[in-house]
Specification:
The complex is a heterodimer of chains A (about 270) and B (about 325).
Chain A (H helix, E strand, L loop, with lengths): L13 E12 L2 E12 L3 E5 L6 H8 L7 E6 L2 E3 L4 H7 L1 E3 L12 H7 L9 H6 L3 H19 L15 H14 L4 E5 L7 H17 L3 E5 L3 H7 L2 E6 L2 E6 L1 H5 L2 H8 L4
Parallel strand pairs in A: 3-8, 3-9, 6-7, 7-8
Antiparallel strand pairs in A: 1-2, 1-4, 4-5, 9-10
Helix pairs in contact in A: 3-6, 5-6
Chain B lengths: L1 H7 L1 H8 L1 H32 L6 H17 L4 H24 L7 H23 L17 E6 L2 E6 H23 L1 H11 L1 H6 L4 H26 L9 H12 L4 H22 L8 H15 L14
Antiparallel strand pairs in B: 1-2
The chains are: A alpha/beta (about 270), B mainly alpha (about 325).
């Protein structure tokens, strides 16, 4: 992994802030009073033991879950309730812990699906296939090909995604999220189930996305080495509560974090 | 020996000696098949986008036809009635999405399937309440659909083609081609396929499930209307038409639940198979073979291609 020059995001403006968010399913509290923020241009990691509420947190941010309490401010707009497609329209893209691709489609079509929102030409033009529709399709296709080159998946673009090995599926899923040209990219365990080489590739892509496109990234990851290398700031959850928040070095030496991961002697 | 002769040889001898009869049987089978395909198309649309087998497709056919005829009886000119019926199908699609699909989002498919049963009985009751239960005549002439027959003199005999059947075949073909192109090339079509594959992923790229559901139910409504007009013109418009939905099942099994071309080819195979079976093998078993032959054909196909002729074969790594 190449060394990363830490860009100064400490003073950057806040793109997303989560204030006092609580979420429960029946009697189970998934999140209680969680607050943190994400600054423009940073890579923000969310870590914690299994069942800490990390994925729930992402689901709240992109509107899959509606929190019972708390507020979320994204790009200056505070909202009580936002549905997933509205979040996507607002510039939030995501990937999933257990890959969620369109299995009946090729890698190319999957990534093209990420452009759905930015296509505006009337579908009647699409049926006739020339004029504005053709122009639009070509423009979007060019953009998608750039992403395909960037992720080095040109050789599999016509392959149905169900046939791809897991590591490549994750890459296609990242490509689909990138095709949305998001302001905030949520990655749910982008390296789960990967071998070392695949992890290194994925880390490189994440850093490049952050550097080249300036995309703000929030990621959940279990591999502490990866988290420490990639992220600018880390928020730690345990049993739905926030127990630490800060730079990787700060979090690593935090007593509560060590206890949460290793267990406390009673 | 005699039985074997009658099953395996005699029908083909008959086909050879009276080719005009064979052509007539093939033609009638083709037309019936095209009409089955139209019904199957309505199922395929909704199944593709939501994985739900819409039991209500049959009654939607009746309902659309009833609205059309009912409006005309009230003195609305035929073409305006047609336009209003299309609007009514849009309203139905919106209502189904709001009142039925949205509250049941994320429920297992079987729950949604049961909900379409509920919708069926609601539409039966609602339709009877408004339009009454007696059969009505389709306003085929007023919609400029041709009537009468063309007599062709070929192969030393006569073949008669009903003009309405020709119109039905043409309209069905246009709808299939139109929907096929719509699904393959348009942005909404791609979104529809995306929703069919994964709701979660579709939402995450900004596709609105609500909008897609309205689009597919509306499209299924339009297909139902076309089916209602064509079937209604051949017999009449009554609640008994609902049964044709069951005729679509073997077509779907044959063509694959997710394939538009599959629906049309499956329909034609079933239609032609039924008619040939009835003409040539029917007398052997007494008549009535038509009511079950389609299912037998579908069953035989299932043995060899469980995913249907054109069904998507989802390949997954294990």
């Amino acid at each position: 992994m190449r060394p990363r020059s830490r860009i100064d995001v400490a003073a950057g403006e806040i793109i997303l802030s989560v204030e006092g968010v609580s979420l429960s399913f029946g009697g189970v509290k998934a999140l209680s009073e969680v607050s943190f923020d994400i600054r423009k241009g940073e890579i923000r990691a969310i870590i914690g033991p299994n069942g800490a509420g990390k994925t729930s947190m992402l689901n709240v941010i992109n509107g899959f879950y509606q929190p019972q309490q708390g507020r979320i401010t994204f790009k200056g707009k505070t909202r009580a309730k936002m549905r997933p497609h509205e979040a996507a329209r607002g510039g939030i893209a995501r990937t999933f812990q257990n890959v969620a691709l369109f299995r009946g489609m090729s890698a190319l079509d999957n990534i093209m699906a990420g452009r759905t929102l930015s296509m505006h030409v009337n579908f009647l033009w699409h049926i006739v296939r020339f004029g504005p529709a053709m122009k639009e399709e070509v423009a979007h296709r060019r953009k998608v090909e750039e992403i395909i080159d960037f992720l080095e998946i040109a050789h599999i673009r016509r392959v149905h995604v169900g046939r791809l090995p897991y590591g490549l599926q994750k890459r296609v899923e990242l490509g689909r999220a990138l095709a949305m040209e998001p302001d905030l990219l949520l990655l749910d365990e982008p390296m789960a189930g990967m071998n070392l080489e695949e992890k290194e590739d994925m880390s490189r892509f994440i850093l490049d996305v952050n550097h080249q496109f300036g995309t703000t990234i929030a990621l959940i990851e279990h591999d502490m080495g990866v988290v420490m290398d990639l992220s600018d700031r880390v928020v730690v959850l345990d049993y739905g509560r926030k127990i630490a928040d800060g730079t990787p070095d700060h979090v690593r030496s935090d007593r509560a974090v060590v206890d949460a991961y290793l267990g406390v002697a009673h | 020996m005699d039985l074997l002769y009658r099953i395996f040889l005699d029908p083909f001898v008959q086909m050879g000696t009276a080719p005009d009869l064979l052509v007539q049987a093939l033609w009638e089978g083709l037309v019936a098949g095209v009409l089955y395909a139209l019904i199957a198309l309505g199922f395929v649309l909704i199944f593709k986008a939501s994985g739900v087998f819409n039991f209500a497709q049959g009654i939607m056919v009746v309902f659309a036809a009833l609205i059309l005829v009912g409006l005309h009886q009230l003195g609305v000119p035929a073409l305006i009635a047609l336009a209003l019926t299309i609007v009514a199908m849009l309203a139905l699609a919106v209502a189904v999405e709001r009142l039925m699909l949205r509250p049941l989002v994320n429920q297992p498919d079987i729950i949604l399937f049961m909900a379409t049963f509920g919708l069926t009985y609601f539409l039966v009751g609602f339709g009877e309440l408004i339009f009454g239960g007696e059969p009505k005549t389709m306003i085929a002439d007023q919609l400029y659909l041709p009537s009468g027959a063309i007599e062709l003199k070929i192969l030393g005999g006569f073949v008669s083609l009903q003009k309405i059947d020709i119109a039905a075949a043409v309209i069905a073909l246009l709808m299939v081609v139109g929907l096929g192109v719509f699904f393959q090339t348009t942005r909404i079509g791609r979104a529809l396929r995306a929703v069919a594959d994964s709701h979660r992923a579709a939402l995450s790229v900004g596709i609105s499930l609500e909008q897609i559901w309205v689009v597919v139910w509306f499209a299924a409504g339009i297909v139902a209307l076309a089916t209602g007009i064509m079937w209604g013109a051949r017999s009449n418009v009554s609640f008994a038409l609902e049964i044709i939905a069951l005729k679509a099942l073997p077509v779907l099994i044959l063509g694959g639940f997710t394939s538009i071309p599959g629906a049309i080819i499956g329909g034609v195979i079933i239609g032609v198979g039924e008619k040939l079976g009835e003409f040539y093998w029917g007398p052997l078993l007494g008549s009535g073979i038509e009511s079950w032959l389609a299912y037998v054909i579908a069953l035989v196909f299932l043995l060899f291609r469980p995913q249907g002729l054109f069904g998507e074969r989802i390949i997954e790594r294990v």
